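Q: My collaborator sent me two sequences in one message, no labels, and asked for predicted structures for both. Can we handle them in order? The first one she listed is below.
A: Yes, handling them in the order given. First sequence, followed by its C-alpha coordinates:
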Amino acid sequence: MLRFLSKILLLVFPWMSQAAEEPGYRVVQTIDQVEVRQYNPYVVAQVVIDSKPEDAGNLAFPILAGYIFGKNKGERQFEMTAPVTQSRVPMKMEMTAPVTHVNVEGGTQIQFVLPRTVNLESAPEPLDSRIQLRQIPARQWAVIRYSGAWSAANDEWYLSKLRSTLKSNSLSTKGEPVLARYNRPLTPRFMRRNEIWLEMQ
Protein backbone atom coordinates (compact mmCIF):
# COMPACT_ATOMS: atom_id res chain seq x y z
CA MET A 1 0.00 0.00 0.00
CA LEU A 2 2.82 2.41 0.89
CA ARG A 3 4.50 1.62 -2.41
CA PHE A 4 1.33 2.45 -4.30
CA LEU A 5 0.87 5.73 -2.42
CA SER A 6 4.48 6.71 -3.09
CA LYS A 7 3.87 6.24 -6.82
CA ILE A 8 0.88 8.55 -6.61
CA LEU A 9 2.95 11.20 -4.82
CA LEU A 10 5.73 10.99 -7.40
CA LEU A 11 3.56 10.82 -10.50
CA VAL A 12 0.57 12.93 -9.59
CA PHE A 13 2.24 15.94 -7.99
CA PRO A 14 3.85 16.94 -11.32
CA TRP A 15 0.47 16.12 -12.90
CA MET A 16 -1.25 18.67 -15.04
CA SER A 17 1.74 20.95 -15.47
CA GLN A 18 2.13 22.92 -18.68
CA ALA A 19 4.08 19.96 -20.09
CA ALA A 20 1.30 17.42 -19.52
CA GLU A 21 0.08 15.77 -22.71
CA GLU A 22 -3.42 16.72 -23.89
CA PRO A 23 -5.67 15.39 -26.65
CA GLY A 24 -4.83 17.01 -29.97
CA TYR A 25 -7.07 19.84 -31.14
CA ARG A 26 -7.12 23.00 -33.23
CA VAL A 27 -9.01 26.21 -32.54
CA VAL A 28 -11.68 26.74 -35.19
CA GLN A 29 -13.11 30.01 -33.87
CA THR A 30 -12.59 32.42 -30.98
CA ILE A 31 -15.44 34.56 -29.63
CA ASP A 32 -14.55 36.73 -26.64
CA GLN A 33 -13.41 34.22 -23.97
CA VAL A 34 -14.83 31.22 -25.84
CA GLU A 35 -12.90 28.89 -28.14
CA VAL A 36 -14.53 26.46 -30.55
CA ARG A 37 -12.11 23.54 -30.77
CA GLN A 38 -11.96 20.62 -33.16
CA TYR A 39 -10.63 17.65 -31.17
CA ASN A 40 -8.96 14.57 -32.59
CA PRO A 41 -10.18 11.16 -31.35
CA TYR A 42 -8.71 10.01 -28.04
CA VAL A 43 -9.12 7.18 -25.54
CA VAL A 44 -10.21 7.50 -21.91
CA ALA A 45 -10.51 5.32 -18.85
CA GLN A 46 -13.76 6.22 -17.14
CA VAL A 47 -15.88 5.36 -14.15
CA VAL A 48 -19.38 6.44 -13.13
CA ILE A 49 -19.86 7.31 -9.46
CA ASP A 50 -23.16 7.66 -7.63
CA SER A 51 -22.48 10.63 -5.38
CA LYS A 52 -22.74 14.38 -5.17
CA PRO A 53 -20.77 15.97 -8.04
CA GLU A 54 -18.45 17.73 -5.58
CA ASP A 55 -17.46 14.35 -4.07
CA ALA A 56 -17.27 12.29 -7.25
CA GLY A 57 -13.75 13.30 -8.24
CA ASN A 58 -12.22 12.24 -4.92
CA LEU A 59 -14.06 8.91 -5.06
CA ALA A 60 -13.13 8.21 -8.67
CA PHE A 61 -9.49 9.26 -8.51
CA PRO A 62 -8.05 6.21 -6.67
CA ILE A 63 -10.01 3.88 -8.95
CA LEU A 64 -8.69 5.43 -12.17
CA ALA A 65 -5.23 6.17 -10.75
CA GLY A 66 -4.92 2.49 -9.89
CA TYR A 67 -5.49 1.61 -13.53
CA ILE A 68 -2.88 3.96 -15.00
CA PHE A 69 -0.35 3.11 -12.27
CA GLY A 70 -0.39 -0.58 -13.14
CA LYS A 71 -3.53 -2.21 -11.78
CA ASN A 72 -4.36 -3.71 -15.16
CA LYS A 73 -3.66 -6.92 -17.06
CA GLY A 74 0.01 -6.65 -17.94
CA GLU A 75 0.72 -4.18 -15.09
CA ARG A 76 1.35 -1.45 -17.63
CA GLN A 77 1.89 2.09 -16.35
CA PHE A 78 1.06 5.39 -18.03
CA GLU A 79 2.12 8.98 -17.51
CA MET A 80 -0.64 11.28 -16.28
CA THR A 81 -2.17 13.41 -19.02
CA ALA A 82 -4.64 16.29 -18.99
CA PRO A 83 -7.42 17.01 -18.44
CA VAL A 84 -9.48 14.97 -15.99
CA THR A 85 -13.09 15.52 -17.02
CA GLN A 86 -16.35 15.29 -15.14
CA SER A 87 -19.93 15.26 -16.39
CA ARG A 88 -23.38 14.16 -15.31
CA VAL A 89 -24.77 10.91 -16.68
CA PRO A 90 -28.60 10.90 -16.80
CA MET A 91 -30.04 7.47 -16.10
CA LYS A 92 -32.02 7.56 -19.34
CA MET A 93 -28.68 7.04 -21.11
CA GLU A 94 -27.75 3.48 -21.99
CA MET A 95 -25.03 2.40 -19.58
CA THR A 96 -22.38 0.18 -21.20
CA ALA A 97 -20.21 -0.34 -18.12
CA PRO A 98 -20.75 -1.28 -14.48
CA VAL A 99 -21.81 1.71 -12.40
CA THR A 100 -21.21 2.08 -8.66
CA HIS A 101 -24.46 2.18 -6.68
CA VAL A 102 -26.53 3.97 -9.31
CA ASN A 103 -29.71 5.71 -8.19
CA VAL A 104 -32.60 7.00 -10.25
CA GLU A 105 -31.09 10.48 -10.47
CA GLY A 106 -28.05 9.31 -12.40
CA GLY A 107 -24.35 9.45 -11.67
CA THR A 108 -21.20 11.46 -12.27
CA GLN A 109 -18.79 10.31 -14.96
CA ILE A 110 -15.07 10.88 -14.41
CA GLN A 111 -12.61 10.34 -17.26
CA PHE A 112 -8.81 10.08 -17.38
CA VAL A 113 -7.41 10.77 -20.83
CA LEU A 114 -4.89 8.12 -21.93
CA PRO A 115 -1.71 8.99 -23.89
CA ARG A 116 -2.08 9.63 -27.62
CA THR A 117 -0.10 6.47 -28.43
CA VAL A 118 -2.80 4.32 -26.78
CA ASN A 119 -5.85 3.01 -28.63
CA LEU A 120 -8.60 0.62 -27.58
CA GLU A 121 -6.72 -2.34 -29.03
CA SER A 122 -3.44 -1.59 -27.25
CA ALA A 123 -4.86 -0.40 -23.90
CA PRO A 124 -4.54 -3.07 -21.18
CA GLU A 125 -7.73 -4.49 -19.72
CA PRO A 126 -8.66 -3.00 -16.32
CA LEU A 127 -8.65 -5.32 -13.31
CA ASP A 128 -11.38 -3.21 -11.70
CA SER A 129 -14.73 -3.97 -13.34
CA ARG A 130 -15.97 -0.44 -12.60
CA ILE A 131 -13.55 0.99 -15.18
CA GLN A 132 -14.54 1.25 -18.83
CA LEU A 133 -12.20 2.08 -21.70
CA ARG A 134 -13.83 4.27 -24.33
CA GLN A 135 -12.90 5.87 -27.63
CA ILE A 136 -13.99 9.50 -27.80
CA PRO A 137 -14.63 10.34 -31.46
CA ALA A 138 -13.50 13.50 -33.21
CA ARG A 139 -15.88 16.32 -32.35
CA GLN A 140 -16.15 20.06 -31.79
CA TRP A 141 -16.40 21.58 -28.33
CA ALA A 142 -17.14 25.13 -27.26
CA VAL A 143 -14.78 25.88 -24.38
CA ILE A 144 -14.46 28.63 -21.79
CA ARG A 145 -11.36 28.77 -19.62
CA TYR A 146 -10.89 30.27 -16.17
CA SER A 147 -8.66 30.15 -13.11
CA GLY A 148 -9.66 30.04 -9.47
CA ALA A 149 -11.39 27.65 -7.11
CA TRP A 150 -13.10 24.43 -8.14
CA SER A 151 -16.57 25.36 -6.94
CA ALA A 152 -20.14 24.91 -8.07
CA ALA A 153 -20.59 28.69 -8.01
CA ASN A 154 -17.64 29.29 -10.36
CA ASP A 155 -18.72 26.47 -12.66
CA GLU A 156 -22.26 27.81 -12.88
CA TRP A 157 -21.10 31.37 -13.52
CA TYR A 158 -18.77 30.43 -16.37
CA LEU A 159 -21.23 27.92 -17.82
CA SER A 160 -23.82 30.70 -17.97
CA LYS A 161 -21.30 32.99 -19.67
CA LEU A 162 -20.39 30.25 -22.16
CA ARG A 163 -24.03 29.60 -23.05
CA SER A 164 -24.79 33.30 -23.32
CA THR A 165 -21.86 33.89 -25.69
CA LEU A 166 -22.86 30.99 -27.90
CA LYS A 167 -26.51 32.01 -27.98
CA SER A 168 -25.68 35.59 -28.94
CA ASN A 169 -23.67 34.20 -31.88
CA SER A 170 -26.43 31.76 -32.95
CA LEU A 171 -24.32 28.69 -32.10
CA SER A 172 -26.08 25.59 -30.77
CA THR A 173 -24.79 22.85 -28.48
CA LYS A 174 -26.00 19.49 -27.23
CA GLY A 175 -25.52 17.23 -24.25
CA GLU A 176 -24.32 17.84 -20.72
CA PRO A 177 -21.55 20.32 -19.85
CA VAL A 178 -18.15 18.79 -19.16
CA LEU A 179 -15.86 20.14 -16.45
CA ALA A 180 -12.16 19.83 -17.33
CA ARG A 181 -9.46 20.12 -14.65
CA TYR A 182 -5.81 20.53 -15.57
CA ASN A 183 -4.00 20.90 -12.24
CA ARG A 184 -3.35 18.98 -9.05
CA PRO A 185 -5.41 20.00 -5.99
CA LEU A 186 -2.45 21.71 -4.27
CA THR A 187 -1.95 24.13 -7.17
CA PRO A 188 -2.61 27.73 -6.04
CA ARG A 189 -6.03 28.84 -7.22
CA PHE A 190 -4.73 31.71 -9.36
CA MET A 191 -2.51 29.25 -11.28
CA ARG A 192 -5.22 26.70 -12.02
CA ARG A 193 -6.54 26.05 -15.49
CA ASN A 194 -10.20 25.11 -15.43
CA GLU A 195 -12.46 24.70 -18.45
CA ILE A 196 -16.10 24.01 -19.23
CA TRP A 197 -16.93 22.25 -22.49
CA LEU A 198 -20.19 22.07 -24.44
CA GLU A 199 -20.41 19.85 -27.51
CA MET A 200 -21.29 21.73 -30.68
CA GLN A 201 -24.52 20.79 -32.46
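Q: And the one she listed second?
A: Here it is, processed independently of the first:
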Amino acid sequence: MRPMCANYAPTRPDRLRAVFGVSPEREDYVEDGYPGHVAPIIIGAGPARHAELAVFGLIPPWSRDGKNYRQCYNARSESVADKPSFRHAWKTRQWCVVPADAFYEPNYETGKAVRWRIEPCGDEPLAIAGIWERWRAPTGQWATSFSMLTINADAHPLMSRFHAPGDEKRSVVLLEPSRIDEWLGADLEQAPQMLRAFDPDIARCVAAPRPARAAKPKA
Protein backbone atom coordinates (compact mmCIF):
# COMPACT_ATOMS: atom_id res chain seq x y z
CA MET A 1 0.00 0.00 0.00
CA ARG A 2 1.34 3.41 -0.94
CA PRO A 3 1.78 6.07 1.78
CA MET A 4 -0.98 8.53 2.58
CA CYS A 5 -0.39 12.21 3.21
CA ALA A 6 3.37 12.74 3.20
CA ASN A 7 3.39 16.30 1.86
CA TYR A 8 1.50 19.39 2.99
CA ALA A 9 1.75 23.18 3.23
CA PRO A 10 1.99 24.30 6.89
CA THR A 11 -0.10 27.39 7.67
CA ARG A 12 1.96 30.57 7.81
CA PRO A 13 2.49 32.47 11.13
CA ASP A 14 0.19 35.42 10.35
CA ARG A 15 -2.72 33.08 9.59
CA LEU A 16 -2.01 31.00 12.69
CA ARG A 17 -2.44 34.09 14.83
CA ALA A 18 -5.49 35.42 12.98
CA VAL A 19 -7.45 32.14 12.73
CA PHE A 20 -6.27 29.95 15.61
CA GLY A 21 -5.04 32.59 18.06
CA VAL A 22 -1.62 30.98 18.50
CA SER A 23 1.95 31.93 17.61
CA PRO A 24 4.83 29.53 17.00
CA GLU A 25 8.07 30.11 18.89
CA ARG A 26 9.83 30.52 15.53
CA GLU A 27 8.54 31.66 12.17
CA ASP A 28 11.27 30.25 9.94
CA TYR A 29 9.68 26.83 9.42
CA VAL A 30 9.24 25.18 6.02
CA GLU A 31 6.57 26.15 3.50
CA ASP A 32 6.51 22.67 1.94
CA GLY A 33 6.39 19.97 4.62
CA TYR A 34 7.61 16.36 4.41
CA PRO A 35 8.36 13.73 7.09
CA GLY A 36 11.29 14.92 9.18
CA HIS A 37 10.53 18.61 8.65
CA VAL A 38 9.57 20.83 11.58
CA ALA A 39 6.24 22.67 11.45
CA PRO A 40 3.67 24.05 13.92
CA ILE A 41 0.98 22.01 15.63
CA ILE A 42 -1.72 23.20 18.03
CA ILE A 43 -2.03 21.60 21.47
CA GLY A 44 -4.35 22.27 24.42
CA ALA A 45 -8.02 23.20 24.57
CA GLY A 46 -9.43 26.59 25.60
CA PRO A 47 -7.03 28.86 27.52
CA ALA A 48 -4.32 26.18 27.28
CA ARG A 49 -4.27 26.31 23.48
CA HIS A 50 -0.81 27.02 22.10
CA ALA A 51 1.46 26.26 19.14
CA GLU A 52 4.58 24.14 19.22
CA LEU A 53 7.05 23.36 16.48
CA ALA A 54 7.20 19.61 15.97
CA VAL A 55 8.71 17.01 13.67
CA PHE A 56 6.33 15.69 11.00
CA GLY A 57 6.40 11.97 11.79
CA LEU A 58 5.80 10.70 15.30
CA ILE A 59 8.81 9.50 17.31
CA PRO A 60 7.65 7.13 20.09
CA PRO A 61 9.23 7.41 23.55
CA TRP A 62 11.05 4.09 23.13
CA SER A 63 12.79 5.06 19.88
CA ARG A 64 16.56 4.59 19.98
CA ASP A 65 17.60 6.88 17.15
CA GLY A 66 14.57 9.11 16.47
CA LYS A 67 14.24 7.94 12.87
CA ASN A 68 10.72 6.52 13.29
CA TYR A 69 9.32 9.69 11.70
CA ARG A 70 10.07 8.08 8.32
CA GLN A 71 7.20 5.58 8.78
CA CYS A 72 5.01 7.29 11.40
CA TYR A 73 3.72 10.45 9.73
CA ASN A 74 0.22 8.94 9.33
CA ALA A 75 -1.68 6.91 11.96
CA ARG A 76 -4.61 4.72 10.94
CA SER A 77 -7.59 5.48 13.16
CA GLU A 78 -8.61 1.80 13.17
CA SER A 79 -5.39 0.66 14.83
CA VAL A 80 -3.87 3.76 16.45
CA ALA A 81 -4.79 2.65 19.98
CA ASP A 82 -2.91 -0.65 19.58
CA LYS A 83 0.13 0.09 17.41
CA PRO A 84 3.32 0.28 19.50
CA SER A 85 4.43 3.51 17.83
CA PHE A 86 1.19 5.36 18.55
CA ARG A 87 -0.57 3.79 21.52
CA HIS A 88 1.15 5.87 24.22
CA ALA A 89 0.14 9.15 22.54
CA TRP A 90 -3.40 7.86 22.01
CA LYS A 91 -3.97 6.46 25.50
CA THR A 92 -2.62 9.62 27.13
CA ARG A 93 -4.94 11.74 24.94
CA GLN A 94 -2.17 13.70 23.27
CA TRP A 95 -4.38 15.16 20.55
CA CYS A 96 -3.24 17.97 18.29
CA VAL A 97 -4.35 19.99 15.28
CA VAL A 98 -2.08 20.27 12.26
CA PRO A 99 -2.86 23.62 10.58
CA ALA A 100 -2.45 23.37 6.82
CA ASP A 101 -3.04 25.66 3.88
CA ALA A 102 -3.19 22.54 1.69
CA PHE A 103 -2.11 18.93 1.49
CA TYR A 104 -1.06 16.86 -1.50
CA GLU A 105 -2.00 13.41 -2.80
CA PRO A 106 -1.18 11.38 -5.94
CA ASN A 107 -3.89 11.14 -8.60
CA TYR A 108 -3.71 8.36 -11.22
CA GLU A 109 -6.59 9.37 -13.49
CA THR A 110 -4.17 10.07 -16.37
CA GLY A 111 -2.59 6.64 -15.97
CA LYS A 112 0.41 7.87 -14.03
CA ALA A 113 0.90 9.53 -10.65
CA VAL A 114 0.33 13.29 -10.70
CA ARG A 115 0.53 15.36 -7.51
CA TRP A 116 -2.74 17.15 -6.71
CA ARG A 117 -3.31 19.91 -4.17
CA ILE A 118 -6.31 19.72 -1.81
CA GLU A 119 -7.07 23.12 -0.32
CA PRO A 120 -9.93 24.88 1.51
CA CYS A 121 -12.70 26.51 -0.50
CA GLY A 122 -12.86 29.38 2.01
CA ASP A 123 -10.28 31.68 3.56
CA GLU A 124 -9.52 29.68 6.70
CA PRO A 125 -6.76 27.04 6.84
CA LEU A 126 -7.50 23.36 7.18
CA ALA A 127 -7.42 21.84 10.69
CA ILE A 128 -6.12 18.26 10.46
CA ALA A 129 -6.63 15.96 13.46
CA GLY A 130 -3.43 14.43 14.79
CA ILE A 131 -1.58 13.00 17.76
CA TRP A 132 1.70 14.20 19.24
CA GLU A 133 4.51 12.79 21.31
CA ARG A 134 7.71 13.82 23.11
CA TRP A 135 10.97 11.93 22.69
CA ARG A 136 14.23 12.33 24.54
CA ALA A 137 17.34 11.85 22.42
CA PRO A 138 20.42 10.07 23.81
CA THR A 139 22.00 13.54 24.10
CA GLY A 140 19.25 14.55 26.53
CA GLN A 141 17.53 16.92 24.10
CA TRP A 142 13.73 16.72 23.85
CA ALA A 143 11.81 16.69 20.57
CA THR A 144 8.07 17.04 19.92
CA SER A 145 6.67 15.12 16.95
CA PHE A 146 3.28 14.39 15.41
CA SER A 147 1.29 12.17 13.09
CA MET A 148 -1.84 12.91 11.06
CA LEU A 149 -4.77 10.58 11.74
CA THR A 150 -6.37 8.88 8.73
CA ILE A 151 -9.63 7.09 7.95
CA ASN A 152 -10.97 4.96 5.11
CA ALA A 153 -12.12 7.06 2.14
CA ASP A 154 -13.23 4.45 -0.42
CA ALA A 155 -16.66 6.11 -0.68
CA HIS A 156 -15.59 9.73 -0.29
CA PRO A 157 -16.47 11.84 -3.38
CA LEU A 158 -13.18 13.74 -3.27
CA MET A 159 -10.59 11.61 -1.48
CA SER A 160 -11.48 8.42 -3.36
CA ARG A 161 -9.86 10.01 -6.43
CA PHE A 162 -6.38 9.60 -4.98
CA HIS A 163 -3.81 6.82 -4.63
CA ALA A 164 -2.99 3.98 -6.99
CA PRO A 165 -5.71 1.78 -8.51
CA GLY A 166 -6.36 -1.16 -6.24
CA ASP A 167 -5.05 0.59 -3.12
CA GLU A 168 -7.35 1.39 -0.22
CA LYS A 169 -8.34 5.05 -0.33
CA ARG A 170 -7.46 6.98 2.83
CA SER A 171 -8.07 10.52 4.04
CA VAL A 172 -6.89 12.82 6.77
CA VAL A 173 -9.56 14.08 9.17
CA LEU A 174 -10.51 17.74 8.73
CA LEU A 175 -12.05 19.33 11.82
CA GLU A 176 -14.68 22.04 11.65
CA PRO A 177 -13.41 25.28 13.30
CA SER A 178 -16.14 25.07 15.95
CA ARG A 179 -14.98 21.59 16.98
CA ILE A 180 -11.26 22.20 17.40
CA ASP A 181 -11.45 22.68 21.19
CA GLU A 182 -13.75 19.67 21.43
CA TRP A 183 -11.10 17.55 19.72
CA LEU A 184 -8.20 18.92 21.74
CA GLY A 185 -10.07 18.20 24.97
CA ALA A 186 -11.76 14.92 23.96
CA ASP A 187 -11.73 11.85 26.18
CA LEU A 188 -10.98 8.34 24.93
CA GLU A 189 -14.64 7.65 24.18
CA GLN A 190 -15.27 10.90 22.31
CA ALA A 191 -12.11 10.95 20.20
CA PRO A 192 -12.89 7.98 17.87
CA GLN A 193 -16.34 9.42 17.16
CA MET A 194 -14.76 12.62 15.85
CA LEU A 195 -12.63 10.81 13.30
CA ARG A 196 -15.03 10.90 10.39
CA ALA A 197 -15.10 11.98 6.76
CA PHE A 198 -15.21 15.69 6.00
CA ASP A 199 -17.85 17.45 3.92
CA PRO A 200 -16.41 17.44 0.36
CA ASP A 201 -17.88 20.91 -0.21
CA ILE A 202 -15.33 22.50 2.14
CA ALA A 203 -12.35 21.59 -0.03
CA ARG A 204 -11.33 21.67 -3.66
CA CYS A 205 -8.55 19.96 -5.56
CA VAL A 206 -6.39 20.87 -8.51
CA ALA A 207 -3.48 19.27 -10.30
CA ALA A 208 -0.21 20.60 -8.88
CA PRO A 209 2.64 18.61 -10.46
CA ARG A 210 6.08 19.15 -9.09
CA PRO A 211 8.21 21.59 -11.10
CA ALA A 212 10.63 19.83 -13.41
CA ARG A 213 14.17 19.77 -12.16
CA ALA A 214 16.58 21.90 -14.11
CA ALA A 215 19.04 19.91 -16.15
CA LYS A 216 22.57 19.91 -14.84
CA PRO A 217 24.98 21.89 -17.00
CA LYS A 218 27.37 19.80 -19.02
CA ALA A 219 30.95 19.82 -17.88
